Amino acid sequence: MSRKQPIYEGKAKVLYEGTEPGTIIQYFKDDATAFNAQKRGTIAGKGVLNNMITEFVMTRLAEIGIPTHFIRRINMREQLCKKCEIVPIEVVVRNIVAGSMAKRLGLEEGERLPRPIVEFYYKDDALGDPLVSDEHILALGWASAEELEEIVGMTLRVNDYLCGLMRGIGIKLVDFKLEFGRVWEGDFMHLVLADEFSPDNCRLWDAVTNEKMDKDRFRRDLGGVEEAYQEVARRLGVLPESADIESLNKDK
């Protein structure tokens, strides 16, 4: 598939015009950032792994009725997706206290919450993606009341399903971030799950040891970042035990 012109480059992905009407091509990079891009680096093979993990998760979610922008994986680093208008809100689900929630509220990291907490963050790198309430979202017109209700409903369904999926492979789903987009078909609009699902935008801990298996290993200089991403992919069954990530990385 030939590639058209790039239309956007973010911290971890590049978006290109798709070769089919109403589509984009999402290219996964090895670049890694943390603390609103104050820390930068590279995780070898990350783009390949995140592409495969995202394909797996988006496909499974579609099977349970969650609409997504994912169409198909093109190659080791690219996937074809529906073009959508991104809702300028990052939706974070927390099952266990960690990260900014622990710091913000003075709670001990690792405490399991009595129920999932859904938080909203305004998508604006210059502002540091600030935490906002549903009142902000509605008053400022970032989403309608009906859209927000649908977003929360889909988010909780995704959380229920993925908690069970991860539990089955010995992983705790601590928290994760989702993004949603509007897809237009004539005068009709519907919401879809967009962006990605990978160790870049969630916290995954080993169910027995609580060993971190996500980008926190990069954020906190814990080492073993590549190995952690590979282990998640292997447990999900998208990376064979005998696979050589370096050889996969050559297929771009």
Automatic annotation (TrEMBL):
InterPro entries: SAICAR_synt/ADE2_N, SAICAR_synt_PurC, SAICAR_synth, SAICAR_synthetase, SAICAR_synthetase_CS. It is an enzyme of class 6 (ligase). GO terms for biological process: 'de novo' IMP biosynthetic process; cobalamin biosynthetic process. SUPFAM superfamilies: SAICAR synthase-like. Its EC number is 6.3.2.6. It catalyses: 5-amino-1-(5-phospho-D-ribosyl)imidazole-4-carboxylate + L-aspartate + ATP = (2S)-2-[5-amino-1-(5-phospho-beta-D-ribosyl)imidazole-4-carboxamido]succinate + ADP + phosphate + 2 H(+). The keyword ATP-binding applies. CDD domains: SAICAR_synt_PurC. It comes from the Bacteria. Pathway: Purine metabolism; IMP biosynthesis via de novo pathway; 5-amino-1-(5-phospho-D-ribosyl)imidazole-4-carboxamide from 5-amino-1-(5-phospho-D-ribosyl)imidazole-4-carboxylate: step 1/2. Residues 7-235 form the SAICAR synthetase/ADE2 N-terminal domain. Pfam families: SAICAR_synt (PF01259). GO terms for molecular function: ATP binding; phosphoribosylaminoimidazolesuccinocarboxamide synthase activity. Belongs to the SAICAR synthetase family. This is Phosphoribosylaminoimidazole-succinocarboxamide synthase. The lineage of its organism: Bacteria, Pseudomonadati, Pseudomonadota, Alphaproteobacteria, Rhodospirillales.
